[in-house]
Amino acid sequence: MSTFLQACVNGLLMGGFYSLMGMGQNVIFGVMKIVNFCHGEMLMVGMYLTYILWSVCGLDPYLCVPIVAVLMFCLGGLIQHTLITPSLGTKSFTNLLFLTVGLGLLLSNGALVLFGSEYRTITTAYSQTNIGLGPVTLPLPRLISFGVLIVISVALFAFLKYSTTGKQIRAVSQNSVGAEVVGINTKKIYILTYGLGTALAGVAGALLTGFYTIFPTAGASFGFRALIVVVVGGLGSIPGAFLAGIFLGLLETMVALFISPSYSDLIVFVTFIVILVVRQTVIIRRK
Amino acid sequence: MKLKKFLALLCAVAMLGGLLAACSAPAADQSAAPSAATEASKAPEGGNSTAPEGNTPSGDPIRLGTIYAMSGGNAAIGENILRGIDFAVEEINAKGGVDGRPLEVVRGDHAGDPAQGKSEAERLITQEHVDIMMGCHMSTVTEVVAQVCQQYQVPMITAISTLDRLSDADHETMDYFFRLCPLNSVYVKDMLEYLKDSSEQTGEEVKTIAIFTDRAAIGQELIRCVELYKDEYGFDLVATIDYSSNATDLSAQVLALKQADPDAILCDSYIGDATLFVQTLNAQNYKPKMIVAKANGFTDPAFISNLAGAANGVASVVEFNPDLVNGVEINKEFNEKFGVNMNGHTAESYTVVWLFKAAIEAAGSTDGEAVKNALAELEIKGEFPGGRKIVLPYDTIKFENYDLAGEPHFRDNTSASVAIAQVQDGEWKTVWPFDFTDTKILYPAPLE
């Protein structure tokens, strides 16, 4: 029983990251209808930014989160304005696909040139601290990270639902031409959304540094899981992505616990395919 | 509209430039090798003047091809290997080169991919005209590269590819391929031997063992070898846990280990996963009494520094350790140059460069067949002619055909063996074989 509870907690704590990554990906997809293939690399950039702030300025990795968010927002906005917006006009999906894949390669190779291939970690006074809660052990860094990302998720919901900009973002995602007609500056919204998506990935990276190793290809596994989350949770749906992320985290640990850790990846992907097929059939039936 | 096009073009150029920069980094390194040679040759009156030749190498350089991961997830391992090669090349060139000719390193990057390894091997041989080849650090890539070398008759030595299969009956005819390092089964046999011997110091006998490893070929090898020898040592294998490389999370795996609660855990992981594994042990509040790793990521220089105290008590097979009798001196010089200690990969790669030097000098030419024949005959006892004592934990190097666990093997260095070291006070200390060290085993592993 205690192992089961521990596995649940582990799944939740990890699932939170998949959620955050998935939501970032979905914000971008919802508005621009593009799959951001360099989302994982943005997480990696967030990790390295945190590492620099920690090693050079001596900042606690959790204090770095807002700074990383702002920097990543600016980076995302810049990429959107200079690279993606011009390509959006071409209406070519392959163009954007290669653009984001290329950006991802550029970023991970750039990190390799700048930082070398070493695996780095950030150690703080509390990185080895655990909190015992009955039969369950909660590692403090993971717990803090989870807390922060719940706050961020709630803030994101509220922002999209109630703020004027959030409403504008939703309007553009529903009908970009209509939004432009009623006077919304879609280009500005594009910059905002890509910046927001990038910032979310960067924040996920910053939160991971407390207990994960930092290396140039660190984003790949997370970027890939973000894609699963997005597809399972529904393209463009923020709450869907949130739930799907938690679901993915729990699924991984439960499969590992009840079947075998060796099969957890396999079963995750099988579930992924089953969900895709089932949903497709349901949609076709409804039509 | 024009501005947009211009911006897009600008960005495309910037991206291309970035990629080129990433790709040309190895090329820049490549040019560093000859310059290092000239630098070294400027100072023959330095510490190395005792060498018999002692003069500047001249004539056509002998081109040594290397194929390791210099990009991708395992680039860190490649970097360590290349440091060992550079160190040996610089040393050899400073002492007058090979038969008076300088050695030059031509680097290939396999990025962990056998297909890329193959094309890099072909590039190095047909375009760069390398005379001899070293590689790789993933056995599956080594196998492919060895085939290319066989085809073009370029002698190749692998310093660190431990997959047993590489020298088995299927590869009998690949007579251009030699292996310096011990085989996986030798590693694992030594690990089990250590567990058995450890009761002498710990007072507790190891009865149950578990395996924690990468799902890639290295992990399958560990599992296979443990299965092969566990009955001989009377161990009960209670769990076999694996994961895919660069895992995002290992807590499920650690929980499964905790449930099985073995007396000792045997593992093999790359550096990222090794670090995450030890962190996760702490996060899941599980302290196994003994962890014995099959080198790899656990002996990467970043392992201890990344984990701080949490690594204390982790033991590993080592091909080399700075506290080994013949390793102290070279490690000091190496550390002054690179700022990190030598590890097994570095020391073995270093040794292979010297082996090639000895073989080419014995052959009297760089002709592929002559060098191959010289390698087959070569026997190094104690120290290299004109060089150091063998820095690894054995005193003979000779490539031989022999039988291992009932299977014939070809052109392996049969004297190769390993030692076991344990992290104590943030440093690797050799703890086994007991005759080679005064350090006692830290038991149970504190992991803090």
Describe the structure.
Chain A has 287 residues and is an all-alpha fold. Chain A has one domain: ABC transporter involved in vitamin B12 uptake, BtuC. Chain A has eleven helices and two strands; from the N terminus they run H-H-H-H-E-E-H-H-H-H-H-H-H. In chain A, a hairpin with a 2-residue loop joins strand 1 and strand 2. The termini of chain A are far apart. In chain B, strand 14 and strand 15 form a beta hairpin. By secondary structure, chain B is α/β, with parallel strands linked by helices. Chain B has a seven-stranded mixed β-sheet with strand order 7-6-8-9-10-14-15, with helices on both faces. Chain B has a five-stranded parallel β-sheet with strand order 2-1-3-4-5, with helices on both faces. A three-stranded antiparallel β-sheet of chain B has the order 11-12-13, covered by helices on one side. In chain B, helix 5 packs across helix 6 and helix 8 runs parallel beside helix 9. Chain B contains twelve helices and 15 strands. Chain B has two domains: 234 residues, Response regulator (Rossmann fold, 3-Layer(aba) Sandwich); 160 residues, Rossmann fold (3-Layer(aba) Sandwich), CATH 3.40.50.2300. The radius of gyration of chain B is 23 Å and the shape is globular.
